[in-house]
Amino acid sequence: MSFKPGEVDDLASLPDLNQEVLLRELKVRYERDTIYSYVGDILVAVNPFKQLPIYTTAVQEEYRNVLQKADRPPHIFAIADRAYYDMLRDKRHQCCVISGESGAGKTESAKYMIRHIIHLCHSGTTGEVLENQILQVNPLLEAFGNAATIMNDNSSRFGKYTELIFDAEGHVCGAKISDYLLEKSRVVQQQHGEQNFHIFHYIFASPFKDKYALASKDDFPYIRDERLFSDREAAHQHDIVTRALKDVGFDDNEMEMLHDVLAAILHLSRIAFSAPEEHDPASLAADSASVCARVSSLLGVDASKLQSALLTTTTITRGEAIVKPYTTMQAQDSRDAAAKELYRRMFAWIVSSINAILDPEGQAAKAQPEQRSRLAPPSADKRFIIGILDIFGFENFDVNSFEQFCINLANEQLQHFFNQHIFKMEMEEYRRENVDATDVAFIDNQPVLDMFLNRPMGLLALLDEESHFPRATDDSLVGKFHKHFSSHAAFSVPQGDACEFHIKHYAGTVMYDGIGFLDKNRDSLAPDVVHLFADSSVSVVAESFQASISSTGQIIPSRARWSSNVGKRKNKATLSNTTNKRALTVSAQFRNSLLLLVDNMAQRAYKVIAYSPDTTIEPGAFSCQRVLDTAGIRDFKLGRTKVFLKYYDAETLEVKVTRFKQLAVTFQKVARGFIARRSVVQMQREREQRAAQTVEMMKTVEASAHAIAQDREIPHMGPWTFTCDRLTIPCGQSDPDAADATDALVSMPIKMKKTQRRRRQHRTPSTSTT
Ligand SMILES: Nc1ncnc2c1ncn2[C@@H]1O[C@H](COP(=O)(O)OP(=O)(O)OP(=O)(O)O)[C@@H](O)[C@H]1O
User: Ranges for the Myosin motor domain (predicted)?
Assistant: First the structure.
């Protein structure tokens, strides 16, 4: 069969699919604004970088309960539709993983996916508030967690796993967000051509600008103004965030506190230090005392304590507090560390608050009394989840640091997950089932992953080890990397003595600059600063600095409002206190969160499609062969215990089974109608018969009454059936209702008899009829 370029929706059905063909097809389709294609079960999306009219409500309606993939063109809505209806039909959790390099369109896809699922489950006004809350989470988190990078003007600087929680009827009853590794270093420094988190730019154009003395961005060293947003656009975006905060459920006081923290961070950057000589103790530069006072007032802490926390560090040695002054450089680092941690914890506070608000139990508790039974949270076994993973994409910049090292590791892990499920596990299954299958060639990235994650000799393990040596430097760390991995196929040592190393990732070779690795991994914040903020009178600050940090790096605030989440998360992660000296390093937390994530996905993601139509066919190879032959499916393999189908044949079977089910319903309908009609006719006939009997019987009764009246013998009546309007009362000796029926039956004659008796009393006073 010949195919016209760009005409085939499912590229896996092309006779000769290789990389060249795949790219050519995608290009031709992209040029026609056909941005979606299937490759088997996977949807490939090409970023159009323009608004296409393919996301309207009318289009959404076209992707509602689509039975067969081929019925509609490929679309992200089709994936959402399938996840939703598969969840409802199979009563199983679903998971959708969105991957691609930075700027590929993952976040947009995740948003369309969530939007469409909410559209599909929309059930009128009852769930409207919650549905809107869920939709508003995205603009809110984007403002605080996204920033302009060289590759993407709206790049996610954190990983996000969104779980939409449904009851068995498919109504959404809650949601949960898990966030991973916010790139907090961006708060204090951005590469050329990049920007700070969006929210910092929005606040400069907000109505709070004057309140916080944010006249010019140029006065704030943490802001690199590349003029991505016009003031108008920034003000508009600020309105959107304010709306989102309100809709999700944050009150005015909480919104004000968030703005206070943002302004405090911006003003922190204006605190400068000076010292006569490089190694001399630093003091606040001229004018910085007043800035420090402003910051402390915004953060609800004592100004003099903030000054000393920025200028000195206190260590306890043998029960004695030793105060050591910082040099100018150390004081700057301490200021920046405070700013980064403030932002990270504020972000975590937002995520935790969202989770508390969207928690199914919390939703039910908040509901109006009349809605409570409808919104009662389903028990765990009646809850179904669609998880959507949208993490930062693969990055390869001119200068790649610790953040890219972690981001690319996460992408490497995802790639491995795909490989495992799409190729490796499939091939293993074939072997177990004695099915002869040609090996599919794919690049297994297991060795790269091992190089990162192995213990005790992986890159992360070495990084951790060096981070615990106070004398270690970035150079000594990179030296160790060179020594241990120079012979590894995926590692190369650059020429010269630069503090660099190259890693050959699945998506390309990245040159990493080791400068700053140790500091970023240690991520230590002086205990003085932690204690100071934990005592803040601003609850957002106090709660987030009193919080525990899980082994996956998630911050768990202790506030009562979050208690339900705290309980749940504690099960998954061992808690460590922020100020604990043995707190896990960033890379260790990241490693744990990756493992947890992959673990979650593996439980949810894939299912073995087993067909077992409700027939009495004995399960076995012969029956399977017969079923598939009848269904016209040719290209399958029979294993020992399973049948291996092409993914599209599963759909063909599904359609056929559905057709059978529809026909069965039609048959049942016709048959039930026929039986019902027949029994109605039968009943009518019986009714007429019994009516005639009744007339006969009444005649007999009348005759008997007559006879009694005339003192004659009553003829034997035998068992009768008395039929009244709609009720048939059988009357016979063996019938349990006989007594009632007899009573009913004789009540009339008795009346008659009584009448007769009254008449007779004049003549024969001794006669009794009871
Ligand atoms: N389907 C789409 N239609 C129109 N524009 C799109 C679409 N997908 C992506 N874009 C555009 O591309 C930009 C980048 O997309 P997105 O932020 O989703 O990338 P990403 O893969 O999530 O990147 P990162 O990993 O950096 O977060 C969006 O801001 C938007 O302008």
Answer: 6-603
Q: What is the pLDDT of residues 303-322, one digit of tens each?
A: 999 999 999 998 888 888 88
- CA 47 to centroid of ligand 1, rounded, Å: 7
Q: Are the C-beta atoms of residues 227 and 119 closer than 8 Å to each other?
A: no
Q: Which of 159, 387, 393, 553 is catalytic?
A: 393
Q: Which CATH superfamily is domain 157-395+525-603 in?
A: Myosin VI head, motor domain, U50 subdomain (1.20.120.720)
Q: Considering the domain 414-513 in this protein, what is its CATH number?
A: 1.20.58.530
Q: How far is the CA of 106 from the centre of ligand 1 (A)?
A: 6
Q: Is the pTM of this model over 0.80?
A: no
Whether the CA torsion 752, 754, 760, 762 is positive or negative: it is negative
Residue 661 tokens read as 């089910």
pLDDT tens digits for 336-385?
999 999 999 999 999 999 999 999 887 766 666 666 555 667 777 788 99
Task: Indicate the domain borders of the chain.
Answer: 157-395+525-603, 414-513, 621-679, 689-761
Instruction: With beta carbons less than 8 A apart as the criterion, state whether 493 and 486 touch.
Output: yes
Q: Is 408 in the pocket of ligand 1 (CB under 6 A)?
A: no
DSSP-derived secondary structure for 17-47: --HHHHHHHHHHHHHTT--EEEETTEEEE--
Mutate to test the pocket of ligand 1, among 29, 47, 408 (most ligand atoms within 8 A of CB): 47
Instruction: Give the Cα-Cα-Cα angle 528, 531, 534 (nearest 5 degrees).
Output: 150
Ligand 1 pocket residue status of 411, Cβ below 6 Å: no
